Structures are given as structure tokens and as C-alpha cells.
Amino acid sequence: MTKPYSPALKPIQEAAFSEPVLDPNSLIAILHGIGGGLAADGQPWPERHQLRGRQMALADTDCALTGLRVVQEILLAAERTRQNGEPEQYVGDRVMEGLMMASLALTAHASARLQPE
């Protein structure tokens, strides 16, 4: 039977001197977490029986779908403003088109990440 792979452990002193301590709420720390497979809520994908690559794909999809929801909410508010608000409050056709293109791109990205590799 083969032994499962586990990376070599770093000594505590080496880790303390080689890696700067990041504030967990800093932009760089959050970007590292997202790159490491964090979902939209900032937590690792909860299903542990998935392969690591699949966990990252699902976490990426979760982030894309959360972004899609935000874009759709902005788009809906802009459309309601166009229909019911004052003309100077309307964001304009180019912004509306940009929001729709963002919706399409996020949907395509989420769909692509859900497909098995």
C-alpha cells in the first residue's frame, strides 16, 4: 500500500523568520486565502471528501455566484431608477450594458468551474 503524500514540516523557528505575519483582514491575506480555495464567505470549501482541485473549483464558483448576485442587485436598482426616478439619477445605457456584460461573464465563469475537469 502506498503512503499518502504529506509535505515536509517546517521547523517553528524557520516559519517564524521566513514568512511575515499578515493581518488576516488585509487585502494581501484575503487574496492569498481566495487563491488557496476560500469560498465567498471566506472559509474553505466545507465538503472534505472532494479532491483539492474540486474544492477550489467549487469555492471559485461560490465566489462568482456571489459576485453575480451583487451585480444583479445593482442592475435591478439601476433599472428601477430608470423607470421610476428622475432622469439625472439614471446611470446611463453604457453602465447598464456593462452590468449586463459582467452578469454574463460571471455566469459563464461559474458554469465553466462547475464542469468536471
How is this fold's topology laid out?
Elements: H1 12-18, H2 27-35, H3 52-84, H4 93-114
| Amino- and carboxy-terminal Cα gap | 27 Å
Largest sheet: none
What is the average per-residue confidence, as pLDDT, rounded to a whole number?
A: 81
CA-atom Rg in angstroms:
21 Å
Number of helices: 4
> How much of the polypeptide forms β-strand, as a percent range?
under 5%
Q: Please, how many domains?
A: 1
Name the overall outline: elongated
State the helical fraction: 55-70%
Structural class: mainly alpha
Count of strand segments: 0
Task: State the low-pLDDT regions, or none.
Answer: none
Protein described:
The chain is mainly alpha-helical and 117 residues long. The chain has one domain. The protein has helices at 12-18, 27-35, 52-84, 93-114. The model has no long low-confidence stretch (mean pLDDT 81).
Features:
single chain, mainly alpha, 61% helix
Question: Would you summarize the structure shown here?
Answer:
With 117 residues, this protein is mainly α. Helix 3 (52-84) packs antiparallel against helix 4 (93-114). The protein is built from 4 helices and no strands.
